[in-house]
Every structure is written in C-alpha cells, then in structure tokens.
Design a protein that fits this description.
Number of strands of chain B: 18
Oligomer: heterodimer
Structural class of chain A: alpha/beta
Helix content of chain A: 25-40%
Radius of gyration of chain B: 22 Å
Largest sheet of chain B: 9 strands, parallel
Mean pLDDT of chain A: 93
Low-confidence stretches of chain B: 1-31
Helix content of chain B: 10-25%
Distance between the termini of chain A: 29 Å
Low-confidence stretches of chain A: none
Strand order of the largest sheet of chain B: 1-4-6-8-10-12-14-16-18
Number of helices of chain A: 10
Shape of chain B: globular
Structural class of chain B: alpha/beta
Order of helices and strands of chain A: EEEHEEHEEHHHEHEHEHEEHH
Mean pLDDT of chain B: 90
Order of helices and strands of chain B: HHHHEEHHEEEEEEEEEEEEEEEEHHH
Distance between the termini of chain B: 43 Å
Largest interface: A-B, 30 and 22 residues
Strand content of chain A: 25-35%
Radius of gyration of chain A: 18 Å
C-alpha cells in the first residue's frame, strides 16, 4: 500500500514549491488515476516517487508497504518494486537495450536476494514479453530508445515494466503521443499487469486512456494538492466540464 | 629526414668514448643547463651501454647523434609547442635500471587464433605471405639494414628510441596477401627498460589486422620507448590497434610513423588503459592519392596517470580523407591530453578531414587539455574539428537507476557507452569483445 502524507516538495535549484500538502493512499490491487491541469504537479509527483534529486521534500512522508522511501535512492526504490514509466523516455546512445534490460533485471534480483537470470532464460522472457507488445527483437538490438518513435518509446517503457514486474507502477502521461492502436497495445500491457498485490498510478490529462485502463479511483490534483477524489465517473465529469469547476470548489 | 645539428660532426663513425666525452663537454659548455636526474641517468646509461648496443656504424652514429642532441637540448619542456601540455623534462623523473625482471609469463593472445609475434622470441611457424626478421639483425646489417632516426631536437621519443632501441621486428606482409588471422605484436616489460623498434610493411593490395600490444610494468618502475614505422602500400588495407596496458609505474613513450600510399586505407586505433606517464605520438602522411586514414582513440585515465595522444597528419597529395575521433575518460587525479595537427599541403585539393575530441571528466581533480590545429594551404578542402568536455548526464543516470541499476553500475554503463561507440566501429567481434572486457575491468577499478 502507498501512503503519501502531507507531502511538501520544491524544486531543489530555485526553491519553487510544487507539492503543497499532498495526501494520497493507494491500496494493493488498486488502479488510481491522477488528473489535473498543466502545472498542477502531476509529473513532479511521479519524479518524487521515483527519487529524482531535482526535487526536495521539505515535509511529510511517503510510505510504501509501511517503509519510508524518501531515504532510498532511485535504484533502491526500484528494487523495492517502484517503477516509473516516463513521459519522455530518454535516448541513451551506446547502451545496448538488451544489455540494459539484463543488468536492470539482475540488479533488482540481486537486491532482493534472488539468483540472476541465465542468458537463455533472459532472452526467452524478453522475446515473449516483446512479442505481446509488438516490439521486434531487431528494435532491441539498437541502443536504448535511440531512433525509437514516440510510440515505440512508450511501448518500450511498458516492456520494461512487464519484465521488471514492479508492485507500484507509475505511468506518467503514457498516452501522450500515442495513436489509438498504440494506445490499445499499451493499455493491454498495463491491464495484463493488474494484480491483487500490485498498485498502479495512472497520471493523465485525458479521459481517453482511462477508457482502456479503467481506474478504481480518480484523484484531481491542483496546485500541489489532491482537491477531489472519486470513482471512475469523476474522470468523465472532468472530460465533460473541465477542471475549473472542481478547482474553484476546492479553493 | 634526419636532423643534424651543425656543431656535431656526423660524417664519420663515432667511437663510444667520443660520445661520452661529447656529453660531458656539452654539460660543461658555456651557458650550462642543469641536467635533470633523468637526463643525467640517460646520458650515463648511454655512455655505459653504447658499445654493446646492436648496430652498424651508421646506427652507432645515429645513436650518438641522438644522445648528443639530448645532452645539448635536454628533454622538451612546456616551452616547446609540441610538449606544451606534457612537460617531459618535469614529468620524466624516474629512469629505472636498464635490467629489470623479464616478463615472460605465458599469456593468451587478445584475440584467439592470432599469430603472436613476440619481440624477443621470434615465432617459427608463420602463415604464408608473412615474413618476420629480428630488428637487431636489421640494425647490425651494413647493407639493407635499418637506421633509426629522429626528426629534431624536440622529437624526444625518436631520440630516446634511436639511442637505445635494441630489439623489435621487421614485419612484411607480401603483396596481395589477405591475412585472416590477426597479428599480435607483443611488447612485454616487467620492470626496468624496454626500447624497441618495429618496421611493418603491408604490401600492395594486402590486408591485415595488427594488434600492437604493450603490457606489463606492474611490478615496479619501467621505462618503455617504442617506435613503429608502418607503411601501407598501394591499395592495401591495414587496421593497426595499439593497446597500452602498462602498470601504473610505467613511462610509455610511443610513436607510430605511418605512411599511406595510393588508395591505401588504414585504421589506427589507440587504446590507453594504464601507465603513469604516457605519450603516444602518431605521425601520419597521406602520401598517395585516394588514401584514407581512420584514427580512433580511447583513453581511460585514472589514478595519477598523465596520458597524451599527439597526432600530426599531413595531407600532401590531392583526394585524401581522414577522420579522427578521440574519446577520453578522466577520473581520479588523471590528466589527459590530445593534440591533433592536420596539415593540408597547397596541392592537396579535395582533402576531407574531420576531427572530434570528446571527453568525459569524472572528478574535480581530473583534467584534460586538447589542441586542434588545422594548417590548410589548399582552397578546395573540407576540414572540421570539434571538442566537447562533459560530465555524466544526470538524467541518464537517473533513468538507469530508476530501473534498479545501482549508481556505480549505472555510471559504469554510461561511461562504457561513451567509449564503446568507438570500439564497436572496429567491426571485429572478438577484438571488440576483448576491448570491452578490458574497459569493464578498468571501470570496476576506477569509476
């Protein structure tokens, strides 16, 4: 279970406060959607969960299965099961995708005290997962994300998520830049991961993705706080009426 | 071209005693300079050794001239343009005793199946089309022999090597021979000194991969000078890989003289992994029309190592091309240098030369100096150069760590990626793999 309590955070470089007293609980097995206008702090929240150093938490705590993750570095958080699917996955020239996947999987296994994967097992697992996401093995021979289209990058993120089997998945605007076919493939990939012991946070601007990944709860983020929480119908309401009413009510 | 100071007669063979006298006289000459301990040690060593060094009269003359030049001018300081970032006079502090422990441990070739040419133990069985003769025999021969040379008072590596070179090989790949097996020319030193000279000729239309492997020097101080004269004849293709993997107490002074004839293609790959004081010079001449040079260098510099790669490349005929890419990683208190001088002669129209120098600086105490120099005297050419110095991208590091890769391993992956791009251009799977493994062990120890 994820419990965020009274979280305050600012940009480390210039001290701008982005998150201002955010409370959020996501139960095991729950799919929570976080929606909100530009600049409300959605992406910042995802980076803080993953442990990016550009943000400084000044108050509050984030408990993942009862453990405060704020003291952990990004790799430790990943080993603890936290996965962020990036809005803009980076291209890293020179790092072979397959090597990266293998090192990542085995690093997490090692951190959890599990044996490393053998190369044949690793290739088999990757081949199967990639096939389901329409990713060719040719594509995986390239350096990490280099020359991938926007849609390919998003699919590659979901592939990583499938392979790493995290217990907290944070999807940061995974729908942006996807056409409808790619959106379905990505959503199917996420839905396949839905499980009683896995929590999912879907950050999005639009209702569209939530037609495919149907959330259990919807939270509206504004000015660094959750201002409204509801069921999946809240997303439809937002789609129809926009954010202004809800934000005005909360203010 | 031999450089001859006017004050010193060189027309007649010189007796070793005369050399010793001359060195002494020189040291006592008006406006005396104080010899450094290294200069003194080299002079004394030469006075003692010169009678026993192999060589014809011409060779002994060349050696004497080299030492006299050194005694007169000293080792180059930063005031000498070519040594501005590597003040050899200040940096060369240790001249270990000549005789060190022999490094003769059996060692697998870097690439399995290579023909190993050991510079002190000639191999008996060679593939067809390959001829190897001991350099000592070449130095001794009065006719058709080899006379080492240096280009001037500032050619410190040429001078030291000319004075002391006593072994090495003359290697000829016959015309039109395509050698499938790589050649590994092995230069080992444990402690002490090693001064070697190789002459390598790749015959017309021939092709070969040569791994010039310098190793050892891990048990104490060592001083190594090595010169390779490499000629790539018309239409030949040669890949020449210099791997300098000495211990951290070794001074490595290397020089490659490369001559490219008509339509010859050479790839020179330099990989520096070790050493305390390293200077690798490449003097290349694109002397034949349609010739091309691909220079790639990776320098992994850590600890207290000072590592300098200096290129001078002359495009002297029309229609030649060259590309140079140098990737350097500096950490600890390491210091890196790359100097790249490209000269385009007035007649060398349609020259295409592109040079890039990229550096990853990993610690506050590390430093890197680079100096590109283009001297272009033709008007219809393409010449470009660029240099970057960066740190590890924090965004890249975060991405890898967010996938569970611990910081050290993530940094290692990124550093390796930076140099592996160049290594992979070699397109020889086993060689690429061997180099990448060595990069991994370096990263394990240094990054």
């Amino acid at each position: 279970m994820l419990e965020i309590r009274n979280l305050h955070a600012r940009i480390a470089e210039d001290g701008t406060e982005i998150i201002r007293g955010l409370d959020l609980t996501v139960a095991n097995g729950e799919v929570a959607a976080i929606m909100g206008p530009n600049g409300s702090g959605k992406s910042t929240l995802s980076y803080i969960l993953a442990g990016r150093e550009d943000y400084e938490v000044t108050e509050g705590e984030i408990l993942w299965n009862g453990v405060n993750i704020l003291e952990m570095d990004p790799a430790e958080r990943a080993a603890a099961g936290i996965f962020l699917a990036f809005q803009y996955p980076l291209e890293i020239p020179g790092v072979a995708t397959m090597q990266f996947l293998k090192v990542a999987m085995n690093s997490q296994r090692k951190a959890r005290g599990e044996p490393e994967l053998s190369t044949p097992d690793f290739i088999k697992i990757v081949r199967e997962a990639a096939g389901k996401l329409g990713i060719s093995m040719e594509m995986l021979k390239r350096p990490l994300n280099v020359g991938f289209s926007g849609g390919e990058k998003k699919r590659a993120e979901i592939l990583q998520m499938t392979l790493l089997q995290p217990t907290l998945c944070v999807l940061d605007e995974t729908d942006s830049g996807l056409d409808i076919d790619a959106l379905k493939i990505v959503a199917d990939g996420v839905n396949a991961l839905r499980a009683p012991d896995r929590s999912v946070i879907v950050i999005t601007h639009y209702q569209r993705l939530l037609d495919h990944i149907v959330p259990d709860t919807v939270h509206v983020l504004s000015k660094g706080r959750i201002v409204k929480t509801g069921g999946k119908e809240l997303a439809h309401e937002l789609e129809a009426n926009g954010y202004s009413d809800i934000i005005a009510d909360a203010a | 071209m031999n450089w001859k100071p006017t004050a010193i007669p060189t027309s007649s063979p010189m007796r070793p005693e005369a050399v010793a006298e001359m060195i002494t006289t020189s040291a006592l000459a008006p406006a005396p300079r104080t010899l450094t301990s290294a200069e003194t040690a080299l002079a004394a060593q030469f006075a003692q050794m010169s009678p026993t060094l192999p060589g014809s009269r011409a060779v002994h003359d060349a050696r004497a001239l080299a030492m006299a030049t050194l005694a007169q001018n000293g080792l180059p300081t930063r005031k000498v343009e070519a040594f501005h970032y590597t003040d050899l006079r200040r940096l060369l502090t240790v001249v270990p005793p000549v005789e060190g422990a022999e490094e003769r441990a059996s060692m697998a070739p870097l690439v399995a199946g290579s023909v190993v040419l050991d510079d002190r133990a000639l191999s008996a069985v060679l593939p067809d089309g390959l001829t190897v003769v001991a350099m000592a025999d070449g130095l001794k021969a009065d006719i058709g022999g080899v006379v080492p040379h240096f280009s001037g008072a500032d050619d410190a590596i040429g001078i030291i090597n000319t004075a002391f070179a006593d072994h090495g090989q003359r290697i000829v790949i016959a015309d039109d021979v395509a050698l499938d097996q790589p050649l590994e020319i092995r230069h080992g030193v444990s402690t002490g000194q090693s001064h070697s000279l190789d002459h390598v000729t790749v015959g017309k239309g021939a092709s070969v991969l040569i791994i010039d492997r310098h190793h050892g020097g891990t048990d104490g101080a060592a001083l190594v000078s090595h010169v390779t004269d490499l000629t790539v004849r018309a239409g030949a293709a040669a890949t020449f890989v210099i791997i300098q993997d000495h211990g951290l107490d070794t001074t490595h002074l290397g020089k490659l003289r490369l001559r490219l004839e008509e339509k010859a293609a050479a790839t020179v790959f330099v990989a520096n992994f070790g050493g305390q004081l390293v200077r690798q010079e490449i003097e290349a001449v694109a002397a034949g029309e349609g010739s091309s040079l691909t220079l790639r260098a990776i320098n992994l510099i850590g600890g207290q190592t000072h590592c300098d790669v200096t290129l001078t490349l002359g495009h002297v005929v029309p229609n030649t091309t060259s590309t140079e890419t140098v990737r350097t990683v500096v950490t600890g208190r390491g210091q890196g240098v790359f100097q790249g001088q490209i000269r385009v002669a007035p007649i060398a129209q349609k020259t295409d030369a592109r040079m890039a120098c990229n550096t990853l600086l990993l610690s506050d105490d590390a430093s890197f100096a680079t100096k590109p120099e283009l001297e272009i005297f033709a008007d219809d050419v393409v010449c470009a150069h660029g240099a970057t110095v960066t740190e590890i991208e924090q965004d890249h590091l975060f991405y890898l760590m967010a996938r569970g890769i611990p910081e050290k391993a993530a940094r290692g992956l990124l550093i390796k990626a930076f140099v592996a791009e160049i290594v992979e251009e070699l397109e020889h799977e086993a060689l690429v793999e061997a180099l990448e493994q060595r990069i991994d062990t370096w990263l394990e120890a240094n990054a």
